[in-house]
């Protein structure tokens, strides 16, 4: 045999039909027609309060709608609009009271498109302070204080397991650990703690099969989970891994590079003032052995406040393959009001990538402008030298995504806490 | 448990006892309040029909708690100025009484305290006082004067001769863990302490629950 789930009554004030969905659990019921708040326990439905709301509100989820939350069926039986006033501005939010005879009551709250699935907790959180702010711990999870306010009931509809009145006030304290929020409500009669879990509007729309689309959420809500924080965290982890790999590879390269000298002019001189034809020369042939590797040509010229320019061609004697390149060495120094200064270097390094083994010679055409008659120079060719630039560039490029994500995470957290009691002062805001 | 039967002295219907030790019961047919006198039942009053309840529990609901099977044999409905609750009387297979309270869908099971120590007299009670009951420090959170709004089924004491009861609700300090609570019942001459924990219906593996249309 199944018992009726609804009691049908009529409003003693206006005669309209009233349905009681929570039966003896209801303490007060609001006539949907005249807005009178009635004593649900009284067989005559005595008046508790006549219509007293300053404004009428329409719930987004109509009373009587059934939905499924976390696999359990719930029916909307009550709706209230409550407000808090901060710095002279009132903020309104919706609270839907849900009922299932086998599960009891549950709440859904809505503010600016942000939803929370809320249940009363049958425990008292432990309270301490951290960093000058209150923190509470429940079942091992720590929540940070977000806001203390006075909540005022502005509008009611449906039925409630307590005696509800427009104008009811409760001291509220909210603590957050996204996606959860722990809220304390204190009245002279009792203190209640409830635990909310963030839901998106579209999750609510799906749960209650509501028509259309859920209104877009605005801003960042107190316990809205951050996508950015975990993503920044995993990007940082990935970066650390990549950086470690790059450093290991770079270190391996430093250790294994042979740096073999294949040619060295030692100290030589040329006459900068001479005709170009007489200055051009070719080096003896030198053997480049081993696997294809880079070739480093170091040009040293003992220039003093002058420059030298070396026009090079590296020629593979066997294949005729020619690599042409020019290098400039310049070094200037002096003294001015700021003290000693210098610019440039007497040594230049050029690296030719991927030079296959073979017999090579260099064709060199030096020229220079120096205050001396002779210029001492040296050309040194080594193969397989370590180049660390790609590793360092890799480290720099790869750090961009985690830094970018961390900035977004920081942006979301600051938007979250801007709405709290711990918002930066107005002076700080003006600096933005 | 052996079911015993007796005839209702008011309407003659056969009354089946779920619990042989019941002191008071209500005839499910004529709503006469019956009190056991030796082997006979004496009608001591009448109760009006209880309003339809949204509680999932009913007489005959069976379940298990703390490794002990129970059956719901009776119910007291209490009301006070800000609300009301059902107190379901459980008889366990080990032969003890326990109470399953249902207040706005919050279920809790309480049993007689084993070691209540010296309990304060009703007129000495004050919110904020602490008492050690069953090795746990409890604090008086609120005092509730409730009236007996209705009874059904088998009870371990009589209620027909009572109209009001004073309860002291005690809780533990905020520990961040599941709440234990205690109640001191001042219905009798000597205060009696109960210690309880909140439970979920699915924890009780309950059978024979009340069915609601459409749920």
Strand-helix topology:
The complex is a heterodimer of chains A (432) and B (215).
Chain A: E1 2-3, E2 7-10, E3 17-20, E4 28-30, E5 37-39, E6 47-49, E7 66-69, E8 72-86, E9 89-100, E10 104-111, E11 114-120, E12 126-130, E13 133-138, E14 141-160, E15 169-177, E16 180-186, E17 191-200, H1 201-207, H2 228-256, E18 260-264, E19 268-270, H3 276-279, E20 281-282, E21 286-288, E22 293-301, E23 306-316, E24 322-336, E25 339-345, E26 347-355, E27 358-369, E28 375-383, H4 389-398, H5 400-418, H6 426-431
Antiparallel strand pairs in A: 2-3, 4-5, 4-14, 5-6, 7-8, 8-9, 8-14, 9-10, 10-11, 11-17, 12-13, 13-14, 14-15, 15-16, 16-17, 18-28, 19-28, 20-27, 21-27, 22-26, 22-28, 23-24, 23-27, 24-25
Chain B: E1 4-7, E2 14-17, E3 24-26, E4 32-37, E5 40-46, E6 62-65, E7 68-80, E8 83-92, E9 97-103, E10 106-112, E11 130-133, E12 136-153, E13 164-171, E14 180-185, E15 192-199, E16 211-212
Antiparallel strand pairs in B: 1-2, 3-4, 4-5, 6-7, 7-8, 7-12, 8-9, 9-10, 10-15, 11-12, 12-13, 13-14, 14-15
What's the domain count of chain A? 2
User: What would the principal axes of the Cα set say about the shape of chain A?
Assistant: rod-shaped
Mean pLDDT across residues of chain A: 93
Question: What is the overall pLDDT average of chain B?
Answer: 90
Strand content of chain A: over 45%
Helical fraction of chain B:
under 10%
């Amino acid at each position: 045999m199944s018992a009726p789930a609804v009691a049908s009554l009529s409003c003693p004030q206006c005669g309209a039909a009233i349905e009681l969905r929570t039966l003896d659990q209801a303490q007060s019921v609001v006539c949907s027609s005249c807005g009178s708040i009635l004593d649900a326990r009284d067989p005559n439905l005595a008046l508790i309060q006549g219509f007293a709301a300053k404004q009428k509100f329409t719930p987004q989820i109509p009373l009587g709608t059934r939905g499924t939350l976390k696999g359990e069926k719930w029916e909307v039986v009550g709706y209230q609009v409550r407000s808090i006033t901060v710095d002279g501005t009132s903020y309104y939010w919706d609270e839907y009271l849900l009922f299932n005879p086998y599960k009891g009551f549950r709440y859904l709250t809505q503010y600016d498109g942000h939803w929370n699935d809320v249940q009363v907790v049958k425990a008292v959180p432990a309270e301490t302070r951290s960093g000058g702010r209150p923190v509470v711990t429940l079942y091992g999870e720590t929540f940070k204080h977000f806001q203390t306010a006075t909540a005022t009931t502005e509008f009611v509809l449906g039925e409630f397991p307590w005696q509800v009145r427009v104008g009811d006030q409760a001291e509220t304290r909210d603590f957050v650990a996204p996606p959860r929020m722990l809220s304390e409500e204190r009245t002279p009669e009792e203190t209640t703690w409830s635990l909310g879990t963030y839901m998106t509007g579209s999750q609510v729309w799906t749960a209650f099969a509501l028509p259309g689309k859920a209104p877009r959420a605005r801003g960042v809500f107190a316990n809205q989970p951050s996508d950015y924080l975990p993503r920044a965290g995993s990007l940082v982890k990935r970066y650390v891994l990549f950086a470690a790999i790059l450093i290991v590879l770079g270190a391996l390269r430093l250790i294994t590079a042979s740096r073999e000298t294949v040619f060295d002019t030692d100290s030589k001189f040329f006459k900068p003032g001479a005709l170009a034809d007489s200055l051009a020369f070719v080096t003896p042939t030198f053997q480049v052995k081993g696997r294809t590797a880079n070739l480093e040509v170091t040009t040293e010229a003992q220039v003093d406040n002058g420059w030298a320019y070396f026009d090079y061609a590296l020629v593979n004697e066997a294949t005729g393959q020619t690599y042409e390149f020019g290098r400039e060495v310049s070094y200037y120094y002096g003294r001015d009001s700021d003290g000693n200064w210098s610019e440039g270097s007497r040594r230049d390094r050029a690296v030719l990538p991927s030079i296959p083994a073979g017999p090579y010679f260099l064709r060199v055409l030096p020229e220079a402008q120096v205050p001396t008659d002779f210029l001492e120079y040296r050309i040194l060719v080594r193969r397989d030298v370590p180049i660390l630039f790609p590793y360092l560039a890799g480290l720099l490029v790869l750090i961009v995504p985690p830094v970018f994500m961390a900035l977004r995470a920081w942006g979301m957290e600051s938007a979250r806490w801007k709405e709290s009691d711990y918002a930066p002062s107005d002076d700080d805001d003006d600096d933005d | 448990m052996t079911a015993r039967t007796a005839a209702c002295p008011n309407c003659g219907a056969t009354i089946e006892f779920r619990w042989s030790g019941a002191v008071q019961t209500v005839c499910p047919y004529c709503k006469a309040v019956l009190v056991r006198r030796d082997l006979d039942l004496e009608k001591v009053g009448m109760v009006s029909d209880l309003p339809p309840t949204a509680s999932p529990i009913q007489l005959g609901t069976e379940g298990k708690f703390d490794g002990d099977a129970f059956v719901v044999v009776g119910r007291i409905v209490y009301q006070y100025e800000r609300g009301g609750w059902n107190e379901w009387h459980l008889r366990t297979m080990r032969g003890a009484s326990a109470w399953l309270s249902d207040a706005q869908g919050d279920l809790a099971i309480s049993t007689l305290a084993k070691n209540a120590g010296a309990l304060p007299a009703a007129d000495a009670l004050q919110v904020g006082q602490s008492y050690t009951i069953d090795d746990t420090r409890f604090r008086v959170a609120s005092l509730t004067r409730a009236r007996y709004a209705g009874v059904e089924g088998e009870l371990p004491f009589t209620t027909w001769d009572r109209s009001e009861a004073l309860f002291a609700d005690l809780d533990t300090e905020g520990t961040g863990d599941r709440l234990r609570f205690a109640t001191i019942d001042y219905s009798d001459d000597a205060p009696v302490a109960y210690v309880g924990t909140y439970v979920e219906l699915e924890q009780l593996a309950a059978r024979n629950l009340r069915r609601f249309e459409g749920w």
